[in-house]
Amino acid sequence: MNILILIERIMLNWILNFIWGDYNQKQLDKIKPLITAISHFYAELDSLSDEQIQAKTEEFRTRLQNGESLDDLLPEAFAVVKQACKRLVGTTCMVKGQEVVWNMIPYDVQLMGGIILHQGKIAEMKTGEGKTLVAVAPVYLNAISGKGVHVVTVNDYLASRDAEWMAYVYRRLGLTVGSVVKSTPLADRRNQYSADITYVENSELGFDYLRDNLVKTLGERNLTWRPLNYAIVDEIDSILIDEARTPLIISQPREEPTEKYTFYAQLVQALMPCSSKKKVSKGFIQEVLNDEYGVEHEEDGDYYIDEKTKTAQLSGKGISKLESLLKVENIYKDMGYGEIHHIENALKAKAVYIKDKDYIISNGEILIVDEHTGRTMPGRRFSEGLHQAIEAKEGVQIQRESQTMATITYQNFFKQYKKLSGMTGTASTEGEEFSKIYELEVVIVPTNRGIRRVDLNDKVYFDQKTKWKFVKEYIKFYHQMGQPILIGTADIATSEYVSRLLEREAIVHNVLNAKFHEQEANIVSRAGKYKSVVVATNMAGRGTDIKLEEGLNEKIAQNYVSYMLKVAKAWTQFTGKIYSEEEYLLIKEALEHALDLQGETLENGIQINGVNILVKLNPKRKQNIDPYARILVRPQDWDQKDEEEKDLFFGLFILGTEKHESRRIDNQLRGRAGRQWDPGVSVFFVALDDGLMRKMGGEKIQALAGMLLSRSDLENLELTQSQFTKSITRSQKEIEGWYFGIRKHLFDYDSVVDKQRKRVYKLRDDILEAETDEAKRKEYVESFKEEFLTEAKNIVITQISNAEMTGQSVADLLIVLNKEFGLNMTQAEYDQIKNLTYEEIKALLMERFDRYFAKVFELISEELLFDVFRGVHLHFIDKLWVDHIDDMQNLREKVGLMSYAQLDPLVMYKKESFEKFQELMKNIINSTAGYLMRLDFEAIAGEAQASTSFSENDQENVMGILAGADLPQQKTQNTDARAKIFESQDDGEFEIFEVDDMPKTSPDTKVRPNDACPCGSGKKYKKCHGAN
Predict the structure, then answer these.
(1) Which of 301, 495, 678, 800 is the most buried (most CB within 10 A)?
(2) pLDDT recorded at residue 1027
(3) Which residues in 111-236 belong to E strands, given as ranges?
(4) Measured between alpha carbons, how far is residue 872 from residues 259, 721, 788, 859, 959 in Å?
(5) What is the structure's pLDDT at 520?
(6) Among candidates 175, 124, 144, 131, which has minimal Cα distance to 72?
């Protein structure tokens, strides 16, 4: 039956392929006619002068305005770019202070990649295919519209380098180019973003977006003064997959003390880890079948570690120990959630986050190391107090926790572009995620020339000790042969361990990791030289282009020949595997030179100088991993006892010391070798107790192998069968799927906040746009007048209703209203009104309210009234949005517990977040209205008129006007503490006046020294009227 099912599946796949064909190839076939058209235009443009080529840009803009689309212009525009590149050949360009001679003209496959980028897709192109140049044609085409194009890079170096380098093409065609990196001054960023094309580092782009949504005027915006139009993201899988949920945060410090972090860091030192993983219930039936039901598993430690999720969880024994140490009866009841959170962070800092792997210490500061790139991330901090816990653990200065002012993930930020595309060498493995979350299609672009690199099967060893023994042997041999070696490690600690191994063997090498990132360019530039050895983290796996030294492979071939002849003279047969025809010719030439051969045919065998040499070609070779030929060199009287076999590799040797959870990271490391038809080899060394292997049950395989083989056999066991490689690849796929599920689930949560963020930012945008649009300003002022008056009346009515419900006297109510809203009542009015009923007071105040604001709104110009409304409204939008972000984070943590009640946490999160957002919008108008009610608009109008008479052209800053006004509460000698709306621009210093539910004093009661003064000044009685 299983055979029948298999046959059916094979037939179904054959039918589908027959009908639909290779989807990727179909996409490439659709592009080929465009390539032909580009070639046609390119030939026609040969007759034009440089000035006529540059004039094509204005011609394209005119045609675009006249109704043609960018797609219509594509063939000719791409041809213009190709012509510009051709005419630059031989030009000396200054790039990052170095002279570079331009020698690039786009190949057809590069133009193919450019068309894919223009279509809003992802172009997967192998390393060395010139992705920097690939982006130029689609960038030029889309920049013609004048709406701006952003080329996003993974670091500052690439952003500034590519901007300087490719600007020679753009400026030749009449376009402007800018670049934004961390060192770009904020004052200059608008100029850079105003260029036709801007190269920008990814995090700076996100931070500029957040800054733009905190400003008070449109003129202060740098990035979003025009809509986000088109972006090409270089290394798109790094930014939109690896860092997709990395939050970009602008924050300010909280006032929480830092001493507690040190205390908890010391406390958790008393806790010991459990020797095994936490037992998870398999269900009642399964436990009964396995005779495990009711059996309690003894805990031998205080906490469990989960490497997969990077968490540490207290055991029952650990909870009891903490309760004893802290002298509390119940840690959860007596300590509270906040303190439990700090303890958990201290535990994670101790047990899960490892120095020189997850972070490094530089100049007394904890710097996070990106697990995917191996680079440090200056300015980034672990959230929710974890960074402070690590600082306490390491004994460096502890920074205060911060309150988030604005935040967004890369995932949500880049989805705002009208058109988005990207390029990378490794995107197809994450094609499903790109499609489902970003609606981006991945198209694999063929290489300009074939790939000769040999990707060997993984080499699997019993344990770490055995693995490192073989790693050292491989490095020694191929270094002796002169082959450049790039040793890839998973973290900084491993790279330093390898460095110590090499030092003991007296092998000169360079170390490239986050600690030595300043030397990156210099190290990479020499990595392809004869006998070069570089030990690197994943830093070397992306964005580096290693070029081989001239004549390198000829030197290596000569060393191989010398070695094989030396082995043969020691009465040992040498067998060498050769992996390509080109490499065979190198060996043959070196043999001819070493032995002075004159046209002998090695395939037929030769005898010379006491050795036999025979080459056996492999006619069945199908792939790079299959040897092209074997060369046998042995003494003429060989006794068939001693043999030595080696692989004869050329080019760059990529030696991975551990497999990553993601296939992309491994492929990126492999991709450093074999660029543009260069030879190369890659192989990964894996131990059964490596991190990845532990997750896939390597410990069980270790135990089984330990029972079947002796220790000496295990120490020399090397498994290279393809089954092991396939098994590891399957496990990587499962882990990738697991992570994708997590990211997809978290994306559902993030989408809720993202929709709210867009609503709030849209509200801010509408207010800011009214600043320069007279019609919008008039509409805003009129609508907000009405909204303000309605809400203000509701506040007063609510206050009166509350007083009536609680039995508060009318006299006390009047004191509260006078204090909160500055009614400016005389003593005679007070004596008269206090005898009215609640309904009469309500009617009187509403009438007085309408009369007062009708008068002051007539006194104040529309422009000034707009400034007043805008300033206060924006302040409360920003302030309450910050509080809302905290509330949403707390809600996120709370709903996780709802699954225990058989409720879907996501559904509950959406429901409660909607309610909270509705409350936020109400609070914004309520707080704004409440604040405006406390202002003396007559005083503001008078001072504003005085100011404008000095300079009619200066735009009035309403915050400056209000901060400088000395507004009275009542028309007496007493001043009002509410005279200043903003003490400073720092929200942390902003004072908010709250309405008391119950007043503390009334005219009929005795006023104590520390009571609020009945005059309503807001001061204590002893410092106001009681001072006399």
Answers:
(1) 495
(2) 54
(3) 122-124, 149-153, 177-180, 197-201, 230-234
(4) 37, 71, 12, 19, 9
(5) 67
(6) 144
| Separation between Cα atoms, residue 296 and residue 726, nearest integer Å | 38
- Cβ atoms 453, 623 nearer than 8 A: no
The Cα–Cα gap between 453 and 540 comes to 17
Write down the pLDDT at residue 653.
95
Within 10 angstroms of residue 80's Cβ, the number of other Cβ atoms is 27
d(CA 705, CA 694): 15
The span from the CA of 533 to the CA of 511, in Å, is 9
What pLDDT, on the 0 to 100 scale, is given for residue 7? 57
Structural element, H or E, at residue 631 = strand 629-635
C-alpha–C-alpha distance, residues 36 and 39, integer Å = 5
Q: Which two tokens stand for residue 247?
A: 């939050």
Amino acid 999: pLDDT: 30
Task: Average pLDDT across each block of 10 residues of the chain; the chain has 1028 residues. List them in order.
Answer: 53 52 85 95 94 95 95 96 96 91 94 96 88 95 96 91 95 96 93 96 93 89 93 91 80 70 87 74 47 57 78 84 83 71 86 85 85 69 83 87 81 93 87 88 89 89 89 94 92 86 92 67 80 81 74 95 90 91 92 84 84 90 90 83 89 91 83 85 88 70 70 76 79 80 80 92 92 91 90 85 80 73 68 78 82 84 88 91 86 75 83 93 91 79 45 33 31 32 32 29 42 52 53
Q: Which whole-number Å values give the CA distances from 273 to 269, 317, 391, 689, in the listed order?
A: 11, 11, 21, 19
Q: Which pLDDT score is estimated for 995?
A: 29
Q: How far apart are CA 717 and CA 713, in angstroms?
A: 6
Written as six digits, the tokens of 138 are 């689609």
Cα angle: 200, vertex 492, 380; to 5 degrees = 40
At how many degrees (to 10) do helices 722-769 and 862-895 cross? 150
Residues sharing a CB contact under 8 Å with residue 810, sequence separation 6 or more, in sequence order: 803, 833, 834, 835, 836, 837, 838, 841
Provide the residue count of the chain.
Answer: 1028
Buried-state track 581-612, b at ≥16 Cβ within 10 A, e below 16: eebbebbbebbeeebebeebebeeebeeeebb
Distance of CA 194 to the CA centre of its chain: 25
Name, in order, each residue with C-beta under 8 angstroms of 950's C-beta and a sequence gap of 6 or more: none
* Ramachandran class of 523: left when φ > 0, alpha when ψ lies in -120 to 50, beta otherwise: alpha
Report the pLDDT value the prediction gives residue 164, as an integer from 0 to 100: 95
Q: What pLDDT, on the 0 to 100 scale, is given for residue 979?
A: 28
Q: What is the DSSP letter of 511?
A: E
Contact (CB, 8 A) for 909 and 752: yes
Residue with the two structure tokens 């309450």: 880
The half-sphere exposure of 455 on its side-chain side, counting CA atoms within 13 A, is: 13
**CA-CA-CA-CA dihedral for 12, 14, 19, 24, to nearest 10:** 110
Residue 653 and residue 478 in contact, taking contact as beta carbons nearer than 8 Å? yes
Which residue in 483, 648, 636 sits closest to 576, CA to CA? Answer: 648
Supply 238's token pair.
């790094």
- Long-range pairs for 780-789 at CB < 8 Å and ≥24 separation? 780/866, 780/869, 780/870, 781/862, 781/865, 781/866, 781/869, 784/869, 784/873, 785/857, 785/865, 787/925, 787/929, 788/869, 788/925, 788/928, 788/929, 788/932, 789/849, 789/850, 789/853
The distance of Cα 288 from the centroid of its chain, to the nearest Å, equals 47
Residue 1026's nearest CA partner among 998, 1007, 1005 is 1007
pLDDT at 444: 92
Query: What radius of gyration do the chain's Cα atoms show?
Result: 36
Which whole-number Å values give the CA distances from 130 to 114, 162, 173, 540, in the listed order? 11, 12, 21, 17
Cβ(419)–Cβ(228) below 8 Å: no
Neighbours of 472 (CB within 10 A): 16
First to last CA, the chain: 103
3-class secondary structure, 509: coil
Please name the residue ranges forming H helices in 770-837: 774-806, 810-821, 827-833
